[in-house]
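Title: Prediction job returns without error message
Component: structure pipeline
Severity: low
Priority: P3
Assignee: unassigned

Description:
Job completed but the reporter wants confirmation the result is attached to the right record. Sequence as submitted:
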Amino acid sequence: MLFTDSGSGLAAELAAELGGEAVELNAELAKRSDVVVLAVKQAKLDQVALELDAARAVVSLLGATSLETLRRAFPEAEVGRVMPNLAVEVRRGVLCATGDLSPELRRTLEALGRVVDLDDAEFDAATAVMGCSPAYFALAVEAIAEAGAAEGLDGELARELVVETLVGTGELLRRRDPLELRSAVASPGGSTEAGLDSLARDGAGEAFAAAVRASLERMRGAA
């Protein structure tokens, strides 16, 4: 693997950590690479595209940057678009994909999690749902664990209990509809039902929906 950066030193750090080489110029990277992974700020796209004009294949990780825009920037290259979420770090990610992705590249992506093929027009909505939601889940874990700690549980234990419950719930949701799962946990008149009623009164469901809308508005405003 080859790496470049804009002077941060991150390229050398990644080369040392992952194996590979840091090169000074994007042009050199483009000439020597089979596939260039593009991870820059949207505002830098045109500048970087000029430096990468020798690239044969480009995979973009840029948010709110359409395949059409990318193909205009790299008219001589095969161009694909991928949006991963943070769980690729543990090879359990979701990676939305579109465009020109070779079978070899797809196999590489599949080692990082589930690859989902989407139309380019669906990428913004998908990013708001799968790219941003790990932060929302983390906020919920934090709040629930802190409430448990306030009731006398050790803080680390409370967090572990919530995290392991979340992992198991994720597996259940592969097999059950969310409404069915809520009904299975919340017996009539029980403590879970009381908690769900409280969440409904406080508008928890609408708050999550509003978070998705806010993320989409920011993405589309930046495009």
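Comment from assignee: result matches the submitted record. The chain is about 55% helix and 15% strand.
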